[in-house]
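Hi Y.,

Following your request, here is the sequence exactly as I used it, all 500 residues.
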Amino acid sequence: MTDLVRMEGIEKRFPGVHALKSVDFDLRAGEVHALMGENGAGKSTLMKVLSGVYQPDGGRILIDGAEVALPGPRAAQDHGIGIIHQELALMRDLTVAQNIWIGREPRLSFGRIDEARQNAGATAILARMNLGIDPRTPVGGLTIARQQMVEIAKALSYRSRVLIMDEPTAALNDAEIAELFAIIAALRSEGVGIIYISHKMDEIRRISDRVTVMRDGARVDTVAAADTPVSRIISMMVGRELTEDRAAIPDLSGAETALELRHLWRGRELRDISFTLRRGEILGLAGLMGAGRTELARAIFGAEPCDRGEILVRGRPVAIRAPADAVRAGIGYLSEDRKQFGLAPGMDVRANVAMASLSRFASRIGTIDEAALGRVARGYIETLRIRTPGDRQQVRLLSGGNQQKVVIAKWLLRDCNVLIFDEPTRGIDVGAKAEIYRLLNELAAKGKAIIVISSELPEVLRLAHRIAVMCEGRLTGILPGGAAQEDIMALATKREGEAA
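Below is the corresponding structure, written out as tokens. Let me know if you'd prefer a different format.
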């Protein structure tokens, strides 16, 4: 196979950060080359250089053996380089077709947009991906999983010879992942080279030919995927061995009930949900995409209140019609979509950490005690190992995993008694995952009541003391921690009226 792309000695610096340190990388025609590393290792930065988003401070890029300059994303697209970013970059008020063809709209006479051709072109791409999405649907009305698939369709519309996928399956269910992998296989057969960034080891072993591991802005090694044990890849990524032992399940039979739900309903999204959550307990919430897990979390937090039903906190009924009500009741929520609901990306780390607790830092004359706020923020930076030059760094400049840690710090500072973590390790590398697992167990040991929603069943099994399973808006069963995966999946697919 010939090299489509070769990157040699790539350097990139940001204020206070040496992001890329003389990095070499190559991609061959018709291969899937996985790019792995902890958050902040430089993976996304390297790909943003290749896609023209960032300009390198040193080194060179060759395409088909010829050195090229990529002064912007359009130049990269002109060279056949497409990228699917980890964070969604769609315009929510525009339709699916408008998002796919934005800036390249087919025109009629007098410059008018040919909407029929635009919709037809989008339909063809969506059909190729086996997606039954109406191209006239506003993107804001789609689930995160469907929005991610629109991003993929948009990248495919450029007929890219080089396709960069940055955590493309983070919000996809198994069926959607299978569809994506079928698309990848077809593209490979056409000679397209794919750079695949993921932290999911099973995906890497299934589809990649080679794996390049980065750490601290430098390339560690490039190895053949089929010949390299997962343990070696993890060791290269983190520079240390990780233990996978789950914590012992505590006896919580006499623990106080921290949260109780009684017959919650909202349309067909949530139907007669009831359960209890004890102090010191981690309750895993499992189910397939669309089961209603996030809808339940947002209902508890007041972001999308229920039509009827009752929520009790420490035995007392509370009226939660808005997030402010939930926060006052001692409930914190880490959303699956941190960019939209969890962060103020244009603000710095310390402001984001203090966002839900500003009154704690108010002085008698109404000003903010910046010194105290800075000390607290730096404490969480150290505790959670947030990779940032300092607490004054803008959050938008951090990697996705480090942004997630900032959101966690926000709710830890608020000292909520009930914490809901919706996909807490989405887009986070194995090293950071281990840190977050440790943190959740420590919080539970201190008496916090925790709900963890995760699309990764091994994660639920590792963390949860009990596992509540949902299907089509209903709670189909609650299992003990350590339950068999087959039992969980049976409940996750148990439709209404089916026998147990």
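The chain has a mean pLDDT of 87.

Thanks again,
Q.
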